[in-house]
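This section describes the prediction task in plain terms. A model, or a person checking by hand, is given the sequence of a single protein chain and must write out its three-dimensional structure as a string of tokens. No templates, partner chains or ligands are provided. The sample shown here is typical of the held-out split.
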Amino acid sequence: MSEFESLLNKLLEQKPDLSRSDIQEMIEKKKEKIGAGYLTDQGALFLIASDLGVSLNEQLKVEMGLKDLYVGAKEITLQTRVMNVYPAKQFSRKDGSQFLLRTMTVYDADSRAKVKLWDEKASLPGIENLKPGDLVKIIKAYVKSDMTGNPIINVGSNSNIETGDVQNDIPSLDSITDDVSTIKENQQNLVVSGILDGNVRISEFTNFKGQPGKALHLRIKGKDGTYARVVLWNTDEKSLPKMITTGAKTRLIGVRTKMGQQGLELHGDEGTVIEIEGTKEIQPIIIRILSMTKNDSGNMMILGMEQNKKILNIVDSTGVSKDLKVGDVIECMPTKVYGNSVTLEGDSFIRKIDDDRMPTISEIRTKIRDLKPSDSIYCIESIILKNPERREIQTKTGELVSLSEMFIEDDTGQIWLKGWRNQARLLDQFSQGEIITVTGVTAKAGLEGRTELFLTPFSGIIKKN
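The expected answer:
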């Protein structure tokens, strides 16, 4: 007799008013309520017994799979692979005593689950050295529920985790990696791959507790050309290569999907593992300076162009560029290069050079008729048809922000040029009839589908004498 049959008979003995078909129907309803892929018939049976006030007093088999987990299970043993491991965090109990807690995500052939390691188990020897895909055996753990009712594996004082290559049929990390084009809404604990599309950037934020934090932003493209924006909260650039090129193969281990304003997004946190092709060795780069603008933080924002006409956004936080001017050709040793984003800090250096092979700004100008909404960076030359107009716009959050806009044209067409916030001030110094060169602008679809130009933090405007 199977263990399920034994448990079912025991339940029927204590509930003679129920038939076998009644129990089977309750099992199907329980599985449907919890969701496909979370419960086996045997796991559902334990939940039903608990609902009926019946104690089966017989645990599941010692070794089980993640799909068999149920809240209340004790002394279970599982063979799994590591997906990701979070840093240990210290918390305070109500009595003021301190304890450590570390979270990790594991998976097997059928499912994925979170594991919490308490107190001394949070700092088990070698736990921080575990890598995605490593085999681990979780011994004598117990199961509780999270705030959404999903089962969480807990490793306490009587539990343990063993590592080592044990023969099993758990798939490799490559086998559970999904291309970003296949992701769907409301998925968790994903491993997603794609091609880096655009820049990698860091932003700063303040959380609900008033604590400062950083977030890593990027975008990856799938095999069918679709892309997803990625936000990794409480993450900085420390884990990334020093040099990353646009188009680098990228994999994110331990992310979830979320619907954003521009479509489906991938979100992660400090436990997410990010793998991007790149190098740790920095190589010098040669550029021609197209524009130079100082931001409110005192950093010099430089728009540069390489020999192949690739446009780079360069942030100089050290002042090494203070003696340079627009048009100079320079060789610089950056601190890091992420796609089109270059950072100069610390021991970065710059020197002016003569290089006749470097293209000039006139060679990369685009005519207005050829501007198309995209992520491309454009440079144009035009005449101002209408003086800039400044107004205050109220955002959805109630914030008032400045918008300045002026109407310009060249011999192929006319277009609106707009600047938000700090960029609004850049337009205010020009007037009708002046001929200007504008560098570092993006084209977007505006009202009624018309293409409009927008200034960026790296934009520059030069009046033609």
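For orientation: The chain has a mean pLDDT of 87.
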